[in-house]
Amino acid sequence: MNAPTFHLDPRLAADTLDIGDLQLSRVLLMNDARFPWLVLVPRRAGLVEFLQLDRADCVALDAELRLCSLALMELHRPDKLNVAALGNVVRQFHVHVIARFETDAAWPRPVWGDTPAPSYAAAEAVARVKDLRAALRLV
Amino acid sequence: MNAPTFHLDPRLAADTLDIGDLQLSRVLLMNDARFPWLVLVPRRAGLVEFLQLDRADCVALDAELRLCSLALMELHRPDKLNVAALGNVVRQFHVHVIARFETDAAWPRPVWGDTPAPSYAAAEAVARVKDLRAALRLV
Q1: A108: contact with B, CB 8 A cutoff
Q2: Which chain A residue is nearest to residue B70, measuring alpha carbons?
Q3: Which whole number is the average pLDDT over B48-53?
Q4: β-strand pairing of A25-30 with B25-30
Q5: Quick check: B73 contacting A, CB < 8 Å?
């Protein structure tokens, strides 16, 4: 029997811009101009909890979280990183990596569940995706 | 020169009940009767970001997150786990592992920054700590 196929949750797809695929995870940029905010989605069908990752995927995810954290650090020099796997709304397992600033719109609160997100303007979206692809060596 | 000594952040100490020490992390129970909520604090002085963990500590932390997640699953059978390292308020690196229910006080929002936490009653606190110590093989 073939392994079930990974499909990105439609809500994650609608809320984000595609950056590209690392070895394990699809990397997405949240379309929220207030925060430099990546979402990593391991391309494993049916994954909901961190607990379900096997050892090899767990090691790969750690490496990819590190790479994405470094990319955000390098590009934005934030005051703090927030790393979180919640999944109360979208059950498909995904991890947020968010660059936070003491001057940002939600500080010191978490970014979720705030007012509706202002999307990126077209030119800014293109520039952000390009910079992130370069920082993640996806070019 | 001696390695700097780990001291638990006083705010984390004030908000939690001590469960015990795993190989790397101190395990705390958030004193919030609304949510079964653990906090893991790797006992490394000066640690702020996930990025600063060396490879061995990263592997150890993954294993301890797994152990704590399994303990909450076993004791509470939640609908979802939330795992997060934020640190906007308390900079000492710490990871939240929270058992969430579709019927809980904050669902589907995150648990942070809500109304003040109602503490556990004494007998419930004692029972929770005992059950968690047993589930984490700390007895």
Answers
A1: yes
A2: A51
A3: 96
A4: unpaired
A5: yes
The pLDDT value given to residue A114? 66
Interface residue A11 vs chain B (CB under 8 A): no
Q: Do A50 and B109 touch (CB under 8 A)?
A: no
CB contact (8 A) between residue B82 and residue A84: yes
- The secondary element (H helix, E strand) that includes residue A100 is strand A95-100
Per-residue three-class SS string for chain B: CCCCCCCCCHHHHHHEEEEEECCCEEEEEECCCCCCEEEEEECCCCCCCHHHCCHHHHHHHHHHHHHHHHHHHHHHCCCEEEEEECCCCCCCCCEEEEEECCCCCCCCCCCCCCCCCCCCCHHHHHHHHHHHHHHCCCC
Q: Which residue has the tokens 């001696």?
A: B2
Quick check: B60 pLDDT over 70?
A: yes
Q: Which of A50, A80, A112 sits opposite B83 (nearest CB)?
A: A50
**ipTM of model:** 0.96
For B74-89, write each residue's pLDDT tens digit: 999 999 999 999 999 9
Residue B35, pLDDT score = 97
pLDDT average, residue stretch B111-138: 94
Mean pLDDT (whole number) for A31-48: 98
Question: How near does any CA of chain B get to the CA of A83, in Å?
Answer: 5
